[in-house]
Amino acid sequence: MKQTQQEKAAIIELKILQEKYEIGRRIVTPEGFYQEWFNSLPFYDTYIEAFDVLNEIHYNHVLPPRYKYSCYQSFKTANKTRIDGIKNR
């Protein structure tokens, strides 16, 4: 049976939502957020733009809704602290 345009659009929309959900699951931890941010850099013009997109996905996929980091600077500081802790082990 041939799919209608509406069915095709619904399937595409579902795939997009599934990918956002998977990203949302991965960015719950600081390590996961950093890894997704790093992997997304080629798709954005700036580091901040990549950060903002992921932070917004986090907001939309956690309960209660909240941002992972208050701003890009807090993300950088938290990441530096995490990396320094790993180096000092």
Distance between the termini: 60 Å
Domain count: the total is 1
Mean of residue pLDDT? 91
| Proportion in β-strands | under 5%
Number of strands: 0
* Oligomer status: single chain
Uncertain regions spanning at least 5 consecutive residues? none
Q: How many helices does DSSP assign?
A: 4
Query: How many strands, what sense, and barrel or not for the largest sheet?
Result: none
- Give the SSE order as H and E letters: HHHH
User: Which class of secondary structure composition applies to the elements?
Assistant: mainly alpha
The outline comes out as elongated
Q: How much helicity do the residues have?
A: over 70%
What is the radius of gyration? 16 Å
Q: How is the secondary structure organized here?
A:
Layout: H1 5-26, H2 30-40, H3 47-61, H4 72-87
Helix pairs in contact: 1-3, 2-3
Folded structure, characterized:
With 89 residues, the chain is mainly alpha-helical. The protein has one domain. The termini are far apart. It contains 4 helices and no strands. The chain has helices at 5-26, 30-40, 47-61, 72-87.
Name some characteristics of this structure:
89 residues; mainly alpha; 4 helices; 0% strand; elongated
In short:
By secondary structure, the protein is mainly alpha-helical. It has helices spanning 5-26, 30-40, 47-61, 72-87.
